[in-house]
């Protein structure tokens, strides 16, 4: 069976760890040449080295337009095309510790910082992704949004706002490309509770780690964290020609969280109720 991304060139932002690294690995395993980009050069180079001839690391600050101009120009010079772009880089706003991010107390500076990475970075990625893909007239842009982009998050207003904007901008990009007569597709993925390094400060490594993990996914019907590889599998589908008719779509990857009310597994003491 032929590799799903054979001879394709992909760029993944925020690919030094977590979801981005898992996506890069999945793409390389299916035949793509992957540009690993991140501000963490050491981790980014390590992922690229792991993938060998199928990848290389390039620094990219997604907030800077000049960086996007440079990297897309370099990719076209080196590879002649860009087939897949994954706008994955993002921040929560809590990277330096817990600060107020609710609608009443969040500072404008903190609000802007989250949006510069999560929204401006996606806007610039889409802008230069379209331009790089235009010469071939085809490609796949995959934007990583979040479950938080579909519901309100009182304690993380900037993050929720930015991810909601990513969701809607993905649809706008999809419609624009179709209007232009381009076979450039744009879709968004909305993960929830994926076990990445972002969660480690909340989980810790003490004896109560398992209890903390269980508490954090208590409202998730599947009662577990998702894995970065599970997000990568969805991204692989969207990147491949198998999803050639899918654009402007949003895919939730949340263990059933948004399907409706939380489900409590049946126990011997409390059997599952019989539907009326």
UniProtKB/TrEMBL annotation:
Top enzyme class, one word, equals oxidoreductase
Q: EC no.?
A: 1.1.1.47
Give yes or no: UniProt keyword Oxidoreductase: yes
Keyword Oxidoreductase set for record: yes
Q: What is an example of a GO molecular function annotated in this UniProt entry?
A: glucose 1-dehydrogenase [NAD(P)+] activity
Looking up InterPro entries in the UniProt record yields: NAD(P)-bd_dom_sf (IPR036291), SDR_fam (IPR002347)
Entry-linked Gene3D superfamilies? NAD(P)-binding Rossmann-like Domain
| One Pfam family cited in the UniProt record for this chain | adh_short_C2
* Keywords of the record: Oxidoreductase
Q: Which family does it belong to?
A: Belongs to the short-chain dehydrogenases/reductases (SDR) family.
Q: What is the protein named?
A: Glucose 1-dehydrogenase
Query: What organism is recorded for this protein?
Result: Pseudomonas flavocrustae
